[in-house]
Give the backbone structure.
Amino acid sequence: MDLNHILYFYNIEKTQLEITPQRSVITIVDGIVSGQSEGPLTPIDKAIGIIIGGFNPAIVDALMAEIIGYNISRIPTVYNALYNVKSLISLNRNEEVFVKWVENEKIEEMPLSEVKSFDFIPPKFWQRAMSRKF
């Protein structure tokens, strides 16, 4: 979250953080072949054929977590970036996130919570985060 605050909100001329974004940044994730299980040292390849892009890095992280099968409320860095009042890239707590899903030349807009999971095998110490229920 700190690095994103600097990237988006740091004003070089005033050498301080501003409340309004100082620049536009796009985050792109290559998920064509991903790693699962005990990565990054001994991952198992998982070909899912996905490229993710977005202007809010917290939403991009949340989308990746949903695709993997994680419950974002169990990943503090993602959850806090999205909902903590100290996060400059956060959303309103009741704000629903929608994503555009493009597959086979068909574009569908859906809530983040309805994005399908690709059922990744989590690292052994991340099993608890896989639950989609509280």
Observations:
- The beta strands are 10-11, 16-17, 27-38, 42-54, 98-103, 106-111.
- Residues 27-130 form one domain.
- The first strand starts at residue 10 and ends at 11.
